[in-house]
């Protein structure tokens, strides 16, 4: 029972949200593993069309994050989250039938916008249902369950890749769509939360005028450039610049997934306020710099065994940095957002992954694969410098918050959804 207590959040709304996250992440894991081949072999698109379509879709999703988060504030986080889970399922379901680029682009935009908005609404729901002192801890539980779901989804995707038939891909995408329907049902079980009423004359999207918070969101987006290091840059580095066996590529994702699943909650326990959150982000920068330095070492003429062991160490350090960053970022994003505007603020702060997906691959491929070990060190230095800038930015944001503490619009109960 104690082991389950380290993996699952407390019973009630937190656990329902965690199970919804598991359902989402199963679909996400299957999507990531199979999407490229599905779109080219089943939908019939070229790789250039797939890349262009997904880039446009995630750009639109990035722009939609704040408005959809604001919708969650004004219309109720639970109802909006349920709606967006359903529209995500619709987007995935549409992929089963579209066979042209224009229709693919429409479905991809629906999918990306729904995913971005769902993240914001779910974060707003968590902020409303969980006491401030517990938010980071519960968010860590959710992240652990997400990784478990991603592993299951990746396994399903791997099975489809093994068969490599249209039927196998269609089944996996059908399961993906079903997972979001299940998530909608689970979110529907949590209690209704209060909604906010905009004060006359108040900006509709106040977060866009909050400069300190915007700076913190930008710093977080830069730190999130670590994401392509595991999924894209690391594997390419292994096969082109090291003597490590090809199976080490899979070990990077295994180390990352298992590490987050088992240790994220433990790491997050140390983060209880803005000061400890800033410290956690700073430690993340140190760990990421160390990981990049270790990656750089693998360019030396190491034996296959030594190269493999060194790469696993690099993945472990990067995973530690990820967990430290996530713990600090959650506390910062929740703690500095006005209570009545969590949706739009989480939508804005949560745009970091979309930015990393759009800009990270091209930027990091050029710097790391083009410049070699020096590129790795420069990327690590970027992480360290950005993490050190987070503390002053948090203190700046905290000072501006103290001035506007009284300006909180009234809250009313959310209508049933």
Radius of gyration from the alpha-carbon trace, in angstroms: 21 Å
Unreliable spans: 1-5, 403-412
What is the fold named in CATH at topology level of the largest domain?
Growth Hormone, Chain: A
Oligomeric composition of the shown chains: single chain
Amino-to-carboxy terminus distance = 34 Å
Helix content: over 70%
What's the β-strand tally?
Answer: 2
The string of secondary-structure elements, in order, is HHHHHHHEHHHHHHHHE
Beta-strand share of residues: under 5%
Mean pLDDT figure: 87
- State the CATH class of the largest domain: Mainly Alpha
> How are strands sequenced across the largest beta sheet?
1-2
Number of helices, counting only DSSP H or I runs of 4 residues or more: 15
Summarize the structure.
The chain is mainly alpha-helical. It has helices at residues 2-7, 13-42, 47-75, 77-95, 101-129, 135-163, 166-188, 211-223, 227-241, 248-268, 274-297, 304-335, 342-349, 352-371, 373-403; strands at residues 194-196, 411-413.
């Amino acid at each position: 029972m104690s082991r389950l207590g380290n993996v699952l959040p407390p019973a009630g709304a937190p656990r329902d949200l965690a199970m919804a996250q598991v359902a989402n992440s199963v679909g996400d894991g299957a999507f990531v593993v199979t999407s490229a081949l599905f779109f080219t072999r089943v939908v019939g698109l070229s790789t250039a069309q797939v890349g262009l379509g997904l880039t446009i879709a995630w750009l639109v999703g990035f722009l939609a994050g704040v408005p959809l988060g604001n919708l969650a504030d004004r219309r109720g986080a639970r109802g909006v989250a349920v709606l967006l889970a359903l529209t995500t399922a619709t987007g995935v379901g549409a992929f089963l039938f579209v066979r042209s680029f224009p229709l693919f682009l429409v479905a991809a935009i629906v999918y990306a916008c729904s995913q971005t908005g769902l993240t914001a609404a779910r974060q707003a729901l968590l902020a409303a249902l969980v006491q401030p002192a517990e938010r980071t801890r519960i968010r860590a539980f959710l992240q652990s369950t997400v990784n478990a779901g991603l592993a299951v989804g990746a396994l399903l995707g791997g099975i489809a890749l093994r068969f490599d038939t249209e039927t196998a891909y269609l089944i996996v995408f059908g399961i993906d769509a079903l997972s979001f329907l299940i998530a909608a049902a689970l979110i529907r079980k949590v209690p209704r939360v209060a909604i906010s009423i905009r004060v006359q004359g108040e900006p509709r999207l106040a977060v866009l005028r909050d400069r300190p918070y915007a700076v913190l969101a930008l710093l977080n987006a830069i730190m999130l450039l670590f994401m392509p290091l595991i999924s894209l840059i690391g594997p390419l580095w292994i096969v082109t610049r090291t003597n490590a066996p090809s199976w080490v590529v899979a070990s990077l994702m295994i180390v990352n997934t298992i590490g987050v699943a088992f240790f994220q909650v433990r790491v997050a326990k140390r983060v209880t306020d803005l000061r400890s959150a800033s410290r956690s982000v700073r430690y993340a920068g140190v760990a990421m710099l160390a990981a990049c330095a270790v990656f750089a070492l693998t360019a030396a003429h190491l034996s296959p065994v030594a190269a493999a062991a060194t790469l696993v160490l690099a993945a472990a350090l990067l995973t530690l940095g990820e967990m430290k960053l996530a713990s600090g970022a959650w506390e910062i994003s929740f703690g500095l957002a006005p209570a009545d505007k969590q949706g739009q603020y989480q939508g804005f702060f949560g745009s970091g992954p979309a930015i990393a997906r759009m800009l990270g691959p091209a930027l990091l491929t050029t710097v790391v694969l083009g410049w070699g070990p020096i590129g790795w060190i420069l990327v690590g230095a970027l992480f360290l410098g950005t993490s050190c800038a987070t503390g002053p930015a948090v203190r700046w944001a905290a000072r501006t918050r103290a001035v506007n503490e009284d300006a909180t619009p009234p809250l009313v109960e959310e209508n049933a959804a």
